[in-house]
Amino acid sequence: MRYSLLFPKTKKEAPKDEVSANAKLLIRAGFIDKLMAGSYTLLPLGFKVSEKIKKIIREELNKTGAQELLMPLLHPKNLWNETGRWEDAKEIMFQFKKDDKEYALSFTHEEIVMDLLRKHISSYKDLPLKVYHFSTKFRNELRPKSGILRGREFLMKDLYSAHTSKEDLMDYYWQVARAYLKIFKRMGLNAIITDAPGGVFTDEITHEFQVPCKVGEDTIYTAPNWERAKNEQILTENDKKAAGLKQIKSIEVGNIFPFGTEKYAEKMHGQFTDKNGSKKNVWFASYGIGITRLIGTLAEVFHDDKGIMWPESVTPYQVHLVHIEDPGTEPRVKEVYEKLTDAGIEVLWDDRDVSAGQKFSDADLIGIPVRLVVSKKTGEKIEFKKRSEENSELLTLEEVINKLK
Amino acid sequence: MRYSLLFPKTKKEAPKDEVSANAKLLIRAGFIDKLMAGSYTLLPLGFKVSEKIKKIIREELNKTGAQELLMPLLHPKNLWNETGRWEDAKEIMFQFKKDDKEYALSFTHEEIVMDLLRKHISSYKDLPLKVYHFSTKFRNELRPKSGILRGREFLMKDLYSAHTSKEDLMDYYWQVARAYLKIFKRMGLNAIITDAPGGVFTDEITHEFQVPCKVGEDTIYTAPNWERAKNEQILTENDKKAAGLKQIKSIEVGNIFPFGTEKYAEKMHGQFTDKNGSKKNVWFASYGIGITRLIGTLAEVFHDDKGIMWPESVTPYQVHLVHIEDPGTEPRVKEVYEKLTDAGIEVLWDDRDVSAGQKFSDADLIGIPVRLVVSKKTGEKIEFKKRSEENSELLTLEEVINKLK
């Protein structure tokens, strides 16, 4: 991709109404644009990051036997009434009336999945069921101020599973937990599994995936003899006296909820017939990962004072090719661009007629992990520099391709 | 994919509240599920079809230099007020108030793109701009009864372009028209470009892509000496007297709108500075393709009394492998499944413990273009039959793979 054609270009100044590093960096570098408080467009660079994140999640969830589908965003009131959440979650849901019908916008999809399930599942042979989608969620956050870490509208992956027994549910639950750790690890994030309360979702203990980060809205606690970390809300007076207690600021990038049979299956008649012919409630769970929140988390965790530093697995392009416009170097940079592209490497080529200084500072701001320079000085070689390192080296095109593949 | 694990299975009966063939077939075969009037879940099979459609559209639009992004679905009233469409499109839009703020759900995105553009475009050097996304649209259809041909909530690809001149806009406009014809052709659909009025979008003549279909909601007219077909609404008294006039029932699968400068750019100050330093309004256009509507159109156009007949380019799986459970054939069907999968062929393997008759009728209903049978009778060979043909042939596994690659 020629940078001259990419929409839009970097900005010198961060918008004055943003306070978070993630929003400032992602807006300046051209990854997102703010439509209104808590609502952002994923611009072409940001969209590419979201697609790479989705690909990693798909790969890991498909391995657990989960199937992808896509559920609607506009929901009828009656389904939300069956579980009582039309009232219980009134604060956070966007609810409205049109032509005498009442609707809610999706803030989650448990009721929708349970409705699907009761229509299509009859026997124990139809279980377990594991379905997920990537879709938009709407939550009426009162004062969103953390950029894309907390939005009124955001992208989420939500997975739902239904089982014939508690044992089968918990087996799968921890299988998903391990898949989540792997997903975050593949993006360079070390998530900590944390015990937490279930909010409007469940009265059971649930688990959050927390990434340590100084600006995180959450606080978690760890102690050497605890199996898992604990969320602030769940901490008892006794816990506070634990030996070696550590307090960590963090961002919640995922959460998993082992509902059991009561809150959803029983209220909505999500049932199956067991081997003996009796009707039983399904054992139900749900599992979320915030996609846009992950983009924000990556920007918070991986940046320096010059800009973002994308992990290789989710970078919008693998290489940022900077051309210093010395006379006679044009054919060479074209050749480099084409050979890299032919080798299957995703290249952002800064072909603009601007100063070398601006190109270098834009490359640092955008944060692609490898910067290549072609200029008179580099001659037949190419300057190769990692975004995360100070030193550069001169390599042949072949050596560059070998390093990148 | 083992069919025993796929969610959900086929249904014997079509739901009584559906009248359209597309909804009846797609629901019975397990591609979609109805949440409420005009709103459907894309189940795993339907989701796969939508992903294949998206891939074709992406490939053709990227060739025109368009860039993919993702815009929000919840919009602030103020942007819709700038063009007057908050009032003009009140009937079709879902508008609501929450905590004293007024919102609309996306029924289209012209205002959102124009807002993006005026924030990020300044010079003629930043144009043309060509951006698109796949996203959800909400329209308050009063009596949706055509299955997924017309929904209250549906998936759409919308592309927007902005240019420095009318000439550049119209060049690109017809380039997109050609890309559209190619997109539909790749799915086996012969779309007819049709002159039409612009509705709440524009006063200009616009163009629809109409696929002939007996149950289509639209009627178009062609005549041998007309350059293009005409939509019913645009037909004059004079047109009705044309020699060789033909009336065709059809489904609108795409539309393109050459707005010009007035309706959006002028009202919303979408401007650029030209080579002489003067401010000019951008020349603007938008281009839509209904993704869920295309799935419905394909089901309407490609079915017989036994079920759906997917074109190869958008089928959820390439091959439906039916195993007749004769003793001793189990290792062979596993081998066939694995070798096909290893060869990169997408296989739906009916491994259920049900009768051969049910497997065959389910295969016809689901409509995957190739059916393979492994049984005692087929021995070392495999029965190969196209969904669209009566005859089958016995082939070796190698021959099957060669035919499919």
Under CATH at level 1, the class of the largest domain in chain A stands as Alpha Beta
Provide the structure class of chain A: alpha+beta
**Oligomeric state, counting identical vs distinct chains:** homodimer
End-to-end CA span of chain A: 19 Å
**Count of discrete alpha- or pi-helical segments spanning 4 or more residues of chain A:** 11
Biggest sheet character of chain A: 5 strands, mixed, barrel
Spatial arrangement of strands, main beta sheet of chain A: 9-10-13-11-12
Share of β-strand residues of chain A? 25-35%
Give a structural overview.
The structure is a homodimer of 405-residue chains. Chain A is an alpha+beta fold. Chain A is 30% helix and 30% strand. Chain A contains eleven helices and 23 strands. Chain A has helices at residues 21-28, 44-63, 77-82, 85-88, 110-120, 166-186, 262-268, 291-301, 330-342, 356-366, 397-404; strands at 32-36, 39-42, 67-68, 74-76, 95-98, 101-105, 129-138, 153-163, 192-196, 206-212, 218-222, 229-231, 246-260, 271-273, 279-281, 283-290, 303-304, 307-308, 319-323, 347-350, 370-374, 382-386, 392-395. The model of chain A has no long low-confidence stretch (mean pLDDT 96). The interface between A and B is large, with 53 and 53 residues.
